[in-house]
Every structure is written in C-alpha cells, then in structure tokens.
Design goal:
Length: 290
C-alpha cells in the first residue's frame, strides 16, 4: 500500500506541476510558451542522455573491473538478479564521506557509484542494503521521472521570468484593463518557487519509494535502516571531498546534512528519521506475516 501511495504522490505532484504550467501558459500565451518549452525540453533531453557521464566526471569516479572489488561486484550482481535488472556498471569515488548514488537513463545504462568511505564505514549487510536502494532507483526509472519534473519546472521558470521581466505582466487582462506590473513580478518570484518546491516533493517521494523497493530487493529493510542512520551521522562529521550542491540530490543521504527547518523545506531528501521509521514498519509487517 505504501508503495502505491508513493506512486500516487508522484503522479499528483507531477499533475500539480502541469497545472502550474498551464496557468503560466494562460498568462504568457501559447506562442511564447512554446519557445520556452522547446528550450527547456532541449536542455533536459541533453541532460537525460549525457548527465550520467557528466556527473561521474564531476565526482572523479572511475569504473571498477570486477577483479578490483570482487565482493562489491558480487553483491551488485546478486541484487541485480533479484531485481531482474541487467548488471549495472560500478564506479568508485575517492571520497572519505560514506555515500552512494545511482544514475543512467534506463536499466540498460544503469550505474551504481559508491565512495571509498562507504566501503570502509559499512558492514557488508548494511552496504548490501544501500546497493539495493540504488538499484531500486534504476528499476523505478527515477532518472526519467526527475528529468520530466526538471523539464516542466524549467518551462515554468522561463515563462514566469518572461512575464515578470519582458513586460507581459503589464498587458491587458481579460476585462480589458491593464494589469499591475507588480503582478508580473510576483509571478516571476512565486511561480518558480512553487515549481521548485513541487519538484523537491517529487524527489523526496522517489526516495521513499526507492527505500521500499530496495527493501523488497534485498529482503532486509532493517539493513538499509541501519545504513541510513550510520550514513546520516557520518555526513555531519565527515566533509565530502567530491559532492557538490548541484548533485546532492543524487546521493542516498544528503552529503551536506544539517540545517534548520527552512533547510529541510528545500531539501531533496526526506527526513532520515522518517525513512528509518518507514523501513522499521516494513520489517514489522513482514515479521507479522511470518
């Protein structure tokens, strides 16, 4: 049930983004909106096909041959078989902070990247839970979902800026009266913010879904729960040498952990405590079933 709730949440949030886009389009006019849509689509198509190479290069990741980390490769292969996925490529990032992420536009191009820190910090059982979570992102095609969300958010941002800064906000409204230029400026500020918050909500819902799918793949939700607790603590004391704010959303835990309520509002990750509680509930239900 929780899995379908997360799917439904993603659908609702994508629908909210679409509704916001239609509202902006009504103000901008279809002729102008099409230009911004093409621009955003072109940018995100490029990101969809080439972002994995760019992200891996940004983090200095190097592909591992199976002989270089045989236990890691064997675990990924075992989990990929359980998930009915092709064997992804495995990359290593020289970074003392324990963390991991997945990328690749579809299962045939899947990549799992882990830091040197995570190999040192996690026992094999918890590392297996993390790897199952990353394979879940590949199985759930989260790169595609995030690209669609980013594309729509990009169109909204471009269109809202056009309203605010190209003078469209001062055009006549439906009653033939001149609208206040302040309304255009307000739209330029509020619409992108609303779109970004919805996009972050989508990102958080996909993390919950990857936790649940990963727990199903590994058959051990408590292993992932333990790993998340350990990784969250490490992120607050071990600075990352490779992560960047632009790519923080990729990692299993935010590499820049910390911050107050406002920071959590704009976080790409749900609360680690909430994630652990959900995994413990999954384990409890599994135990009750016997």
């Amino acid at each position: 049930m929780t899995r379908w709730n997360n799917h439904l949440k993603t659908i609702v949030l994508l629908g909210a983004l679409s509704a916001l886009l239609v509202g902006i389009g009504h103000v901008v006019a279809p002729g102008h909106l099409g230009v911004f849509a093409v621009m955003a689509l072109a940018m995100n198509v490029g990101a969809y096909y080439f972002s994995d190479r760019l992200v891996l290069r940004m983090h200095g990741a190097r592909e591992l041959d199976p002989g270089q980390a045989p236990q890691l490769a064997a675990t990924v292969r075992e989990l990929a078989a359980r998930a009915d996925l092709p064997m992804p490529r495995v990359y290593l990032i020289e970074d003392p902070q324990p963390n991991a992420f997945a990328t690749g536009r579809d299962p045939a191009h899947g990549v799992v990247a882990v830091t040197t820190g995570i190999l040192d910090a996690l026992p094999p059982r918890e590392l297996r839970g993390v790897l199952a979570h990353e394979l879940a992102h590949i199985k759930n095609r989260d790169i595609l979902v995030s690209t669609v969300a980013a594309c729509v958010t990009g169109v909204i941002t471009y269109a809202a800026h056009a309203v605010g800064f190209l003078g469209m906000g001062s055009s006549q409204d439906d009653d033939g009266e001149h609208a206040s230029p302040w309304s255009g400026l307000l739209m330029a500020l509020v619409a992108p913010l609303a779109a970004t918050l919805i996009q972050l909500g989508i990102s958080r819902s996909r993390e919950y879904l990857a936790d649940e799918t990963g727990a199903a793949i590994s058959g051990d939700p408590l292993a992932l729960a333990g790993a998340l607790a350990r990784l969250e603590r490490a992120a607050t004391v071990v600075p990352s040498m490779a992560a960047q704010p632009a790519t923080a959303s990729l990692f299993i835990v935010n590499p820049f952990a910390g911050g107050g309520r406002a920071a959590r509002l704009f976080s790409t990750h749900p609360s680690t405590a909430d994630r652990i509680a959900r995994l413990e509930a999954i384990a409890g239900r599994a135990a009750a079933r016997g």
